Amino acid sequence: MHKRETLYIDGEWRLPHGKRVIDVVNPATEKVSGCAPEANHADVDAAVGAARRSFDSGVWAGTAMSERTELLSRALDILQSRLGEIAPLVTEEMGCPVTLSGMICQDAVNTGRFYLDVASELRLSEIRRGNNLAAVVKEPLGVVASISAWNGPFAMALGKLIPPLVAGCSVVFKPAPETPLDAYIIAEALHVAGLPAGVFNLVTGGADTGRAMVVHPGIDKVSFTGSTAAGREIGAECGHNLKRVQLELGGKSAAIVAADAEIGTTVAGLAIGGFFNTGQVCAAFSRVLVPSARYDEITQALCAAAQSFVLGDPMSPETTMGPLVSESQRARVEGYIAKGQQEGATLLTGGRRPVLLERGWYIEPTVFGNVDNRMTIAREEIFGPVVSVITYNDLEDAIAIANDSDYGLHGGVFTTSDGVAREVANRVRTGTFSVNKFMYNTEAPFGGVKTSGVGRDTGREAVESYLELKTINITPSMEAMYNS
Ligand code: NAD
């Protein structure tokens, strides 16, 4: 039992003001495996106050970049040494097979190091001439409220923490209530590495804790990963108070299978794109657009790929698909499966709870055929292992269907023609796009357009998004100070 009773505020482990606790339930066993406090307004106020004081004092924001990268590198070393406990903990929290958790957590540490390298190379000031001599400097943006989702908790946390911290910001971080436990290990690592008090603060809790962070006047920027519904509320609040905001939200991404696509590459990409992490991936290829002439071939191969997943104990190395994160998430996914059938889509495979697994919030990988893009399962984000296959007439039609979505996070094309790949990649309106693969490149910017969000996580751009520009009109004698 992983029992956490404290919050990390102002460099110390503090008992919360409130008495409420959130239980962490293992989605494979349905048993409580841990708990963490539900931080209330007073806790959030203390955390933001500590972050504000640390930022305004310059204890971190005022240090040299080299000092910050050195300290954060020590924290990443500590996390690297604890990956053997972090990966199974993530699996206990959200059900991802432990082999995948291991890979994802290792990638997260590597990506953290990438951010440190990028930050060391950033040019933080330059001279502009024009009608007046000016220095343009990039300064740490301020106090960041960082709120994340449960579907890749450790990786998401590091991705939301290392960029603002290396940029010199102070952070109040809230993990999702389903997965608060691994964030404690990150807090421990930052503490042991010697991060000054108040620069990083951990509060745990649900939407109300998050809301208290967003509305707090001490916050300069909100960095949020989660649903579009919550993103709209946060965006409205930040807009009203002119806080900076970065929103990484939902998706309903389309993979276009071109007439010339190679079947092996295509189905491998579609299977990962649709079913990786039990389909609980914002960028998932949940719509698959196929030419009418290849409908039977693609759907048969995709169903065979879906049926080849091994569902079971996520702690077993044989398991390739774990349960959904929670009972309510399974109910939601089952609701969409029922809706798909009611609206006339053909259930080609899956759609049920696996009969051999008595416990756990499992659902079989599911493929719907004969889906019309106007059906609910083609329009709304399901966030489960459910793929909708839609036929198209020609490439124009395919691009139009792909773009006929409120979302714009990710998209893909499978083709043997580089020309077709480029044409489709240019014309599908998304923030990220993949050719002949399902790919997430943490060294490049990731994010969405339309209701999939605002701003970009990952890449050099992630670090830069926590810097604010300032123009200083200077005298000629000052030029050398800024010409870095
Ligand atoms: P969610 O919006 O319910 O919750 C996400 C986080 O926000 C949690 O920590 C939650 O406690 C908090 N929260 C909820 N409402 C809030 C509010 N009004 N104000 C402040 N905080 C609030 O989302 P979820 O169900 O946990 O996560 C799944 C969603 O996240 C999916 O829509 C998925 O596509 C999206 N997601 C997006 C990305 C991306 O990079 N674009 C990555 C992962 C997940």
Kindly describe this structure.
The protein is an alpha/beta fold and 484 residues long. Helix content is 40%, strand content 20%. The protein has helices at residues 41-57, 65-81, 83-94, 98-121, 153-167, 181-193, 207-215, 228-241, 263-275, 295-307, 327-342, 376-379, 395-403, 418-427, 459-464, 479-482, and strands at 2-3, 7-9, 12-14, 21-26, 31-37, 125-128, 134-140, 143-147, 170-174, 200-202, 221-225, 244-248, 254-257, 287-291, 346-349, 366-369, 386-392, 407-408, 411-414, 434-435, 449-450, 453-454, 467-473. A seven-stranded mixed β-sheet has the order 15-16-17-14-13-19-20, sandwiched between helices. A six-stranded mixed β-sheet has the order 10-9-8-11-12-22, with helices on both faces. A hairpin with a 2-residue loop joins β2 and β3. The chain is globular. The chain starts with a strand and ends with a helix. The model has no long low-confidence stretch (mean pLDDT 97). The site of nicotinamide-adenine-dinucleotide has 30 residues, from α7 and α8.
Beta-strand share of residues: 15-25%
Mean model confidence by pLDDT: 97
- Fraction of residues in helices? 40-55%
Q: Indicate the multimeric state.
A: single chain
Main sheet specs: 7 strands, mixed
User: Taking Cα atoms only, what radius of gyration do you get, to the nearest Å?
Assistant: 23 Å
Q: Which residues sit in consecutive blocks of at least 5 with pLDDT less than 50?
A: none
**Classification by helices and strands:** alpha/beta
Describe the strand arrangement of the main beta sheet, using strand numbers. 15-16-17-14-13-19-20
Based on CA inertia axes, which overall geometry fits? globular
Separation, N- and C-terminal Cα atoms: 52 Å
Q: Tell me the total number of β-strands.
A: 23
Number of DSSP helical runs: 16
Catalogue the ligands: nicotinamide-adenine-dinucleotide
